[in-house]
Amino acid sequence: MKFTVRRSAFINYLSDVQRAISSKVAIDILKGIKLNLTMDALILTGSDADISVETIISIGDDHAALEVEQVGSIVLPANFFINIVKKLPEDTLTIEVNERFQATITSGSSEFVINGLDPNEYPRLPEVDTTEQLLVASDVLKQVINQTVMAVSKQEMRPMLTGVHLVIENGELRAVATDSHRLSQRRIQLANADTTMRYDIIVPGRSLKELATMLDANKDDVVIQIAESQVLFMFGHSSFYSRLLEGMYPDTQRLIPTTSETQLELDAPSLMQSIDRASLLSHQGHSNVVRLKMEVDAQTATLFGNSPEIGNVEEEIAFQNLTGNDLEIAFNPDYMKDALRSFGQSTIKISFTQPLRPFILVPTENENDFVQLVTPVRTAD
Amino acid sequence: MKFTVRRSAFINYLSDVQRAISSKVAIDILKGIKLNLTMDALILTGSDADISVETIISIGDDHAALEVEQVGSIVLPANFFINIVKKLPEDTLTIEVNERFQATITSGSSEFVINGLDPNEYPRLPEVDTTEQLLVASDVLKQVINQTVMAVSKQEMRPMLTGVHLVIENGELRAVATDSHRLSQRRIQLANADTTMRYDIIVPGRSLKELATMLDANKDDVVIQIAESQVLFMFGHSSFYSRLLEGMYPDTQRLIPTTSETQLELDAPSLMQSIDRASLLSHQGHSNVVRLKMEVDAQTATLFGNSPEIGNVEEEIAFQNLTGNDLEIAFNPDYMKDALRSFGQSTIKISFTQPLRPFILVPTENENDFVQLVTPVRTAD
């Protein structure tokens, strides 16, 4: 195996594959990155058994300027190899592998000789044997992920809740995540979808976070294929595989209230900053709670944060509309900040029912396709 | 006590004082920042008992736009107070303190009430009762610090070595630091110094690092005053106090070799990058050693790094001059990188005597005023 490649492009490809590789993984060969060189392309693979990423540098890629001298393959220690490539002195590098799986990496006057592993020991990629596929625009998929994944549970007690529930039916994709204190749901219409297509899967939150980061640099549509225990996302030069979580996701539809007693309409970023200030104090108290008091006749909404030792904060918040009944409600400011962040710069409507019942946030512009739910907190006073 | 101040300027002043404050300090009141308001100025003080910083916001400062309504003083919890000020919604803020040391901080519709402490409990600043003073340009002092402080010892075994030795005599300032494996010495001429002035002090490395960071934003000359157990640096609106380390610093002059057998002249940044690459491998081995082999007849200098498990690296390095005897020498690449970094973009001369004797690095442009010394390492092979 021998090839020459342009260093800057190679580093970009390596970084994508590195996302799948974890130094914590128990299987030694998975700490490596697999390089497989054919006459047409160099195929890089990384995996931590849950997530696998494959990316293809073809000889047609002008940025990479790949020159194949002799085909072959090898597994090289990932972090180490990537650090070397990043620090090499020249614009290009040449890698040559001998029959004892030793790789000689040359760039300018610098020459590294690195011990690799037998590529035949490297696990095969999961098989996704379906011809059905979904097509989603890259930025839309990234938004769906970012608007839901922050609500997945961090607790391993109920493994299903560490994933995002994706339901595809009637030409629509619905994504839901909840940690049982808050819930986020986003819907999108699938442009060219077969309306008879039906899937119901749970994708680990960690997988989706890594995928969203990889999508940052991607402008192409993403092709999604779903099999028994795997989901495959294909875009640009890369394939991203994730295992699925097993089990039945709880029925979350019935959790979302459909009526409301008090309605507050305001700009998400402005409320976010007010809550951020109030949480400076609530973070010092052991209950981490912020109170919101709405008085409809007086048309005031006031936020309170309190720490017995340090002090308290009170702030009148600006809003566009306040209607319905007076209400005083308390909530975890961190959940509320996560929810507000997911609306970006939008104006939102918050619909409350009662002090101890969940309330929901929706964008004013599109009330049906995106909802964040937060469960209030009982306070002593 | 009551005043109004512009938030952005106030944050800058607070950040300077915050440098002196450590959340690890045992004395509770030192976790606070002292505010003392007179008719002319607001004086901020922070201290961790080793370092104290005082900074003065005068009513003449247009950026701060300080308005004094009622004089007084208070101690407020530092990190907490600074976070509040950073997150307030408007351009200005007002602070009003009542007789129970409660501070009401108002900005726009946001109002914080914070419990403070009695300013009479706050320790007094050290007294530096001398009229003698040194004057050093801010950028020169920062350079002297940065070129020496990285060589101080991290071990508390010999406390003196955790400081930088400053000797002022014959109108010259000499700064030396060593951790007994490497040494750095920098000299500067004192512009307007009285040549009879004589001081010999050891300043804690940590103090000098904080001072150097504060000097980043300073263009004024720095006035230095030295007392029995304290040194005081004055610049801009700030006074920076540090306690001195007690004891006799070892005689380091005799450690610096005055003859050499092999001389290598090259660009510091280029050698730095080569050593950085070689250290990728040496960091994996348990001895962390890089070898340099110089062959004068062949006019080659080659760097070797090696890790039995992972592999090895070999690199021929570029140089301007190689003279004297052939030599092979081994050293800790991290010490060498620290030393090389301190020369910036300069061309340097490295002078070796023997494989196990210290070697020195000096800038080609100015061989007398700056020297880095590195002790080689014995290797098995």
Automatic annotation (TrEMBL), chains A, B:
Gene3D superfamilies registered for this protein in UniProt: 3.70.10.10, DNA Polymerase III, subunit A, domain 2
Signal sequence bounds: none
One of the protein's GO biological processes: DNA strand elongation involved in DNA replication
Location of the DNA polymerase III beta sliding clamp N-terminal domain: 1-126
Subunit structure: Forms a ring-shaped head-to-tail homodimer around DNA.
Family per similarity comment: Belongs to the beta sliding clamp family.
Name this polypeptide is given: Beta sliding clamp
